[in-house]
Amino acid sequence: MLYRFICFIMFAGFLAGCSQPADTEGSADQAATASSAAVEPDAYYEFLWCEFGDNYTEEARDAYFASFNEIADSMTERGLRSFGYRPRDWESEDFDALWVNRWPDKEASEQGWAEWQAKGGNATLQEKHPGVLNCGQESGVNVFGYTTYIPKDIPASFNVESPPYHVDNLFCSFNEGQGPEQLRSFVRDQYMPFLDRYAADNPDNSYWFAIGVPDVVLENYPQDFNWINYFKNSDEASVAIANYDNNEVEIQNAMAEVVTCTDRQLWNGVPIRVLPDPI
What we know:
Blueprint: H1 2-18, H2 28-38, E1 43-52, H3 58-73, E2 81-87, E3 97-103, H4 106-118, H5 121-128, E4 133-135, E5 143-149, E6 165-174, H6 180-201, E7 208-214, E8 225-231, H7 234-247, H8 249-258, E9 259-261, E10 265-273
Antiparallel strand pairs: 1-3, 1-4, 1-5, 2-3, 2-10, 5-7, 6-8, 6-9, 6-10, 7-8
Helix pairs in contact: 1-6, 6-8
């Protein structure tokens, strides 16, 4: 547990530096200010395990989502956004789909959950929509939180207006002798330049990625972090992934020196609750 705490602290500095260009002209004070401001994580994500009930249909699901939004609208506004991830071409023994909450930070999550439970949010949903969807409500058991960093600006071309959008993730663990410092170097010196080249060749691309540090790690899902990739649709994703797999062997090998990751898991993403800025 201490090791993961140390990794978490180092991750803040590591990920902050990934998107910081070298500043040879700025003053030391400016550099220190930028570094200090950048160490904050970008969001706190929660993944709730969900099971489909006997009455589950897409129409019933959408009605469930609408009722959820009614309850959320009655709560204190804390910047909550919610999304649904459903496995694409694979299945899990633990869940049928994931309900994903994005909060500005963990404090907002804790306050939001306290208000949700005080209002009896889940009981209301189950009463109004029996046998449709049953999602986790207990942290560390069927709700899993990740302090999340987003090294790359989210492109304006990414949106959730024509679902499903593409999500894929890899659970990664550091190799022996490797850690956040080495991963920071990889992202800064190799992965980000690759993305610059990719964007130059594909100016309308919608790709972005996030790295989440888990609060609790299950034995079935060992990881030091979760690397998540996003595209606005699966067609764009399939072309980009094939290009990366077939043509970017040097970058893949460099990453493999630092971490060992699971195979890529593919998901279909749908919006549940979005604000004017959907992400």
